[in-house]
Request: fold
Amino acid sequence: MTIVSGLADTALAAVAVPPTLPVSSNRNSELSVTLIDSSASWQACAADWDELTLRHPLHGQAWLRSWWEEYGQHQGQLAILRIDHMGHCVGFAPLFVERTWKGTALRFLGSGTTCTDYLDIFCRPEWSVRIGQALGKWIASSSCHSLFGRIDLIELEGHQANAAGVTALQDALAQSGWTEEIASLESCWVVSFPRTWDEYLQALSHRGRRRARNAMKNLHSGLMSYHAWHEHDEIVANWQVFVELHQKRRHQKGEPGCFAEGHFESFLRRAAFRLAEQGQASLVALRLDNKFIAAALQLHTENRTCLYQTGMDSNYIKLEPGHVINAIMLESCQAKGIGQFDFLRGNEPYKARWNAFATPLVRTRLWNPRLTTQVRARMVAMGRCVKQWFSTETETRNKEQE
Reply:
């Protein structure tokens, strides 16, 4: 992790206008920035939001509003920024304001343990540079300061390193001396399907092909049955099957499981049910005799299926229920003509064995050039170095004891 100085010391010009009115980025660009600070105003933008997020399930209002209602509103203030050109919406910055010992921070909605992947400032690529400049000016404006005080930190978690909107904002703020700190997160793992299932199997290792074919045999022989629930009422009715299998797997590993934390269960249930109403979520499960032994929650775009979470009963580990359900989901997607299957974030080795390729994600922190903020930035960097040192020392000692 490094902290890189910005390119110039000139502060961005302040723009003093009321927060609920458009803030002109400059006369030539004809862009304006408007603050959305209520759920009602956010929902009123639903059509534009869907258009600019390309209806990705992790970026839609069903997902992010569920996160805000369960997590965000208890942490800070809604601060979505809408960018317009000649009265037409061309971008959204999905942000909220949080105050911690690091200072006043703008963060992505969906941040934290929910792992909302591929976040960005939502816009078409051709607008990204101008939108980045407009956002930079709004952050430096008296309008922003009157609402939130000076922004010390902008923390953008779960985006690709080349995300167009984030990169444009980085460049705009670097011109006024903001510094950046970029840390790697775990990757998303994506399978791109060839024309036929047999072609896909040929791309796997010899062992991988054999295991995939055995998995399908277990299904077709009648040893196991596969269930898929796509309708809202079906997902509601079978939700507890999925939760219990996920928790059972975690408990068998000696872990509490994410559903032990009430906020997460409430968030995911709310988000999944809302997505199901839009036809963008499904539950799948494996049954052996009269007992469910594996389940998974899938999220859907037009040409990609995302695997958000799974669960299985390790008492049946010899039957490889996790491998079987993955094989069925992959084969089903390929048969439907879906172009990609996304295992989402997490570097578990099994993903590469399914011929999935890594899409790295990062977290970017942008620090205000003020002296007090830069001191905090260096404290954060130092703390991380100390933590890494202790982690390395502990791992070395454990190996020596073995």
In short: Confidence is low (pLDDT under 50) at residues 1-27. The radius of gyration is 23 Å. Residues 3-186+360-401 form a domain with the Aminopeptidase fold (CATH 3.40.630). DSSP finds 13 helices and 19 strands in the chain.
